[in-house]
Amino acid sequence: MNTSTTLFGLDLSVLQGYGPLLLHGTWVTLKLSALALLVSMALGLLGAAAKLSPLRLLNLPATCYTTLIRGVPDLVLMLLIFYSLQGWLTALTELLDWPYMEIDPFVAGIITLGFIYGAYFTETFRGAMLSVPRGQQEAAAAFGLGRWQRFRHVVFPQMMRYALPSLGNNWLVLLKATALVSIIGLSDLVKVAQEAGKSTFNMLDFLLLAAALYLLITSASNQLLRLLERRYNQGVRGLSR
Amino acid sequence: MIELIQEYWRPFLFSDGESLTGLAMTLWLLVASLAMGFVLSLPLAIMRASHWALLRWPVQLFTYVFRGTPLYIQLLICYSGLYGIAAIREQALLEAFFRDAMNCTLLAFTLNTCAYTVEIFAGAIRSIPYGEIEAAHAYGLRGWRLYRRLILPSALRRALPYYSNEVILMLHATSVAFTATIPDILKVARDANAATFLTFQAFGIAGLLYLGLSFGLVAVFRLAERRWLSFLGPAH
Amino acid sequence: MTRKWLAVPLLAIACVSMGASAKEWKELRFGVNPSYPPFESSTADGGVQGFGVDLGNAICAELKLKCVWISNDFDGLIPALKAGKFDAIESSMTVTDARRKQIDFTDRLYAGPTAIVTRKGSGLEPTGESLKGKTLGYMQGTIQETYARAKLGPAGVKLRAYQNQDQVYADLVYGRLDASIQDKLQAQMSFLASPQGADFENSAGISDPLVPAEIAIGLRKDQDELKAMLNGAIKALHEKGIYAQIQRQYFGDLDLYNN
């Protein structure tokens, strides 16, 4: 007699009780990716502004930042930052005579990934900002719009149109890079799949399941990006699909 | 720091006395997987850019799967997953193949880079101005000779900037090889870290080595672009 | 302009949680690599269990502190301890001179000799001559790795380093490895006791200064107060018979302490 649970007709008992853990791992991956995306986009905007600035004080560090980060593999940076981050924070808190503060590994992962992909987004936003015709900014200034208003109402919407393909690409790369956080010990989808496979001696199935879940997420992202592109390309004549 | 360099410079660069390690191993992984991936991708790219759905769809499925999943999972499947299947271990040839960690790693890397390269080359093939093809037809070039004389050279040249990007990304991707027990740069860095606990220095040296390699590759591709893409105009 | 640059580190600090201050002990944070059953392993719901974990929990109970277990890669345990990620390491870590240079240790927790695991009937001994040309696997960052690379590698043994112990056993079963080198008892109680390990056996213990057998709890240096607390707790566990009780639960009549 088989009293197995089924989902859409698929037999779930094959998961042998690892279902909830797998779901949790997927959720960790999604959360990590989304939050790292926010951090890296914020850093990207800052970095792009710095790189486009005429001041050498801003220009030079930003250039160093993007060159270094994009020239070194994610995993090396992750190991470097992850192991060093706590040590630096401890040194800082000791210096300032604050109580000991601990960084949760999840937060450390977000900071690390955000920092790394901030460099890629810097390049994305820099290229996009350069693509917006300068006349737009001048006209906005002529109308009396302040700096922040100019950015928010004129530059940003137009910039997003150019940034979107590259942004989408960076998002997909970031999503796949989160698979590496299992190497620094975070319990994401890949680590959970490995644990499950190891205990049930069925490694291949669980790894294939993890791969399928990633595929699902990337497909959904692609659809979302297509929608966003349509929205930001409103009113622009383009090639017929 | 000095002791770290003194003790580990050889493993970092080429060997730890027994096998190829560090920089040499990373370069070997990179060159081998790129070469095999490139050769495989040419016929697949032609199929991918074809008019016939029957040729296009299988390749599209292949690139969809391999570009939509992380390389790390692909490596794990090749190394830990596949070897666990009894059917593979019973077949003598497959068993001997998957037993070797290097084979598994190169398989995963080759398939991955092939998928990305196929998309790049297919895009380049599609972007050839139709006028060139019409002119070729007017001269009587058709079929295989059309591909050999016009389409492939043109597409490969146009793809050069994008392919150079893929090569750099592949270099970064090889850093995950140590999880399949391959002693590349990152493995040596971890060893150095475990022995001396100078985390920042050990991984910093690894980072510098990768940085140097990246710069080197960028320089090589810039020369290649100057040689092969100058026909596109002064910007190239 | 300066404000913008402070935004990122401040954002980072704002995200972190405040731990207990070091002076008043409310909880004890242990760093552990749970891939070494029956000493330390993970449970299906993400927690940790095992002989070492039970001893740690007993010590916390003795000291009336809350125990917190933080998982980490084995070769990252010492850097993480020094960075302050946890207060102590309880992960079957052997006391070696190299490690003593970096951190401090409590009194002995138990003893763990090193041995190799091979297929039954293979006739392989844990020596360079016997293993020449064969492939030997181990977990990265362990004393077994140090020993293998110093004594066995130069003798012509092919070496393979793995992320954790489970992967070592997996490849041993698959046939990628001819032998694996780890703590003798750990292999005995976990792998060799499982159906996967039915065809394998342990060798005799290796006695070599590079693979000492003393296992203790690791601490940062200059933590005399904590060290005294932990040593006192360990002594109390022996005196109250709690140690013997836990030991019997896992190992029956085996005496790990005087092994």
From TrEMBL, chain A:
<comment type="similarity">
    <text>Belongs to the binding-protein-dependent transport system permease family. HisMQ subfamily.</text>
</comment>
<dbReference type="InterPro" id="IPR010065">
    <property type="entry name" value="AA_ABC_transptr_permease_3TM"/>
</dbReference>
<feature type="transmembrane region" description="Helical">
    <location>
        <begin position="103"/>
        <end position="121"/>
    </location>
</feature>
<dbReference type="InterPro" id="IPR035906">
    <property type="entry name" value="MetI-like_sf"/>
</dbReference>
<dbReference type="GO" id="GO:0043190">
    <property type="term" value="C:ATP-binding cassette (ABC) transporter complex"/>
</dbReference>
<dbReference type="Pfam" id="PF00528">
    <property type="entry name" value="BPD_transp_1"/>
</dbReference>
<protein>
    <submittedName>
        <fullName>ABC transporter permease</fullName>
    </submittedName>
</protein>
<feature type="transmembrane region" description="Helical">
    <location>
        <begin position="206"/>
        <end position="225"/>
    </location>
</feature>
<dbReference type="GO" id="GO:0022857">
    <property type="term" value="F:transmembrane transporter activity"/>
</dbReference>
<feature type="transmembrane region" description="Helical">
    <location>
        <begin position="28"/>
        <end position="50"/>
    </location>
</feature>
<dbReference type="GO" id="GO:0006865">
    <property type="term" value="P:amino acid transport"/>
</dbReference>
<dbReference type="InterPro" id="IPR000515">
    <property type="entry name" value="MetI-like"/>
</dbReference>
<feature type="transmembrane region" description="Helical">
    <location>
        <begin position="62"/>
        <end position="83"/>
    </location>
</feature>
<keyword id="KW-0997">Cell inner membrane</keyword>
<feature type="domain" description="ABC transmembrane type-1">
    <location>
        <begin position="26"/>
        <end position="225"/>
    </location>
</feature>
<keyword id="KW-0472">Membrane</keyword>
<feature type="transmembrane region" description="Helical">
    <location>
        <begin position="167"/>
        <end position="186"/>
    </location>
</feature>
<keyword id="KW-1133">Transmembrane helix</keyword>
<keyword id="KW-0813">Transport</keyword>
<keyword id="KW-1003">Cell membrane</keyword>
<dbReference type="InterPro" id="IPR051613">
    <property type="entry name" value="ABC_transp_permease_HisMQ"/>
</dbReference>
<keyword id="KW-0812">Transmembrane</keyword>
<keyword id="KW-0029">Amino-acid transport</keyword>
